[in-house]
Amino acid sequence: MVPQELRLDDEARELVHKGQLKRRGGTQSESADLEVYLLDNVLVLARYKAVSKTETELRLYKRPIPLELLTMVTPDEQYNMTKYGIRPKALLNRTATGKSGSSAAPNAKPEKEGKHGYSITFHYLGRRGYTLTLWHESHVQRKKWLETIDKQQQLVRERNRRIELHPLEPSVVGPFKVNCAVPYSASLFCYAH
């Protein structure tokens, strides 16, 4: 997604949440404080870059992630258990058994994951996607990011719903098995097998 496709000047565009998350790496160039913007349809990752000795400029860090193609994983099994009903490794490894159950207490605060704090791994699904792990110092703020993104993804799914299912009247079915029903020009055609 290129900046033109973001349509940032569109009146319908809405800033839902913003804040800083940290990127940690082995070298100074791999570590960065990122400005993260959750818009109504996309997650934007940007960082300030020096353009001269006195000026900085906010630039895209990675390709913005459409919310329909975003998944999140945390080491905190409680979040993954309540949202997906499976362990975090099973989200990435589809051959896992997917056994549910957590040994942690339901409302226990997770332990810090090293000196960086609490992580969220963002997965941009698709051919040109990527994976990026970002950190927040506060468990409460990380949880807020997760919940806010999840809520916005639900709104996007509802807004983009293309198919609505309507039950057929029992009198339409009759003695035949209905395989498919398609509305066309205000008429309902049923194909029976």
Describe the structure in your own words.
This protein has 193 residues and is of the alpha+beta class. The chain has a single domain (3-159), classed as PH-domain like (Roll). Helices cover 22% and strands 33% of the residues. It contains 5 helices and 10 strands. It has helices spanning 3-6, 77-84, 88-92, 139-159, 170-173, and strands spanning 15-23, 32-39, 42-50, 56-60, 65-66, 70-73, 118-124, 131-136, 178-184, 187-192. The strands form 3 sheets. Strands 1, 2, 3, 4 and 5 form a 5-stranded antiparallel β-sheet that branches. A 3-stranded antiparallel β-sheet has the order 6-7-8. Strands 9-10 form a two-stranded antiparallel ribbon. β2 and β3 form a beta hairpin. The termini are far apart.
Blueprint of the fold:
Blueprint: H1 3-6, E1 15-23, E2 32-39, E3 42-50, E4 56-60, E5 65-66, E6 70-73, H2 77-84, H3 88-92, E7 118-124, E8 131-136, H4 139-159, H5 170-173, E9 178-184, E10 187-192
Antiparallel strand pairs: 1-2, 2-3, 3-4, 3-5, 6-7, 7-8, 9-10
Summary of the model, kept short:
The protein is of the alpha+beta class. The protein has helices at residues 3-6, 77-84, 88-92, 139-159, 170-173; strands at 15-23, 32-39, 42-50, 56-60, 65-66, 70-73, 118-124, 131-136, 178-184, 187-192.
List keywords for this structure.
extended, 33% strand, 193 residues, 22% helix, PH-domain like, alpha+beta, three-stranded antiparallel beta sheet, five-stranded antiparallel beta sheet
